Amino acid sequence: MNSNTLTAGYRFNDLVRARIVSSRGDLHEKQLNYGFPKPIKLSARSAWWPSDEVHAWLKARASLRDDPNSLADDSAEPAKRRQREIKPKEKESEIA
Predict the structure, then answer these.
(1) Is residue 28 within a helix (H) or strand (E), and if so which, with residue range?
(2) pLDDT band at residue 5, thresholds of 50, 70 and 90?
């Protein structure tokens, strides 16, 4: 493995500039629902994605596009998200 392989990668802003993701929410959705690679944490507030993992993911997504029998396209039902329960407010007369 040469030294270029170890340094080639993306930070979050690089992913946005390359139009791989459009926002942090989009990145999170792609990680949860579509298998986008998890980052390597450089510090508490810094993350890095190896370019070979990102490119492999893009290539896999492109091959799904070309497969008519694929169930992993965007029309498939995404994973269900847990909904936060909203508690009703108490009436002021019940509090007193």
Answers:
(1) helix 24-34
(2) very low
Q: In the prediction, which pLDDT does 95 show?
A: 60
Comparing CA positions, the residue from 77, 35, 25 lying closest to residue 59 is: 35
* Residue 50 near residue 7, CB atoms below 8 Å: no
* Higher-scoring residue by pLDDT: 77, 47: 47
Amino acid residing at 61: R
DSSP 19: T
State how far the Cα of 8 lies from the Cα of 48, in Å rounded to an integer: 10
- Domain limits of the chain? 8-61
State mean pLDDT over 66-82.
Answer: 59
In this prediction, residue 7 has a pLDDT band, given cuts at 50, 70 and 90, of low
Sign of CA dihedral 63, 67, 71, 73: positive
**Pick from 88, 63, 65, 86: which is nearest to 75 by CA?**
65
Secondary structure class of 46 (helix, strand, coil): strand
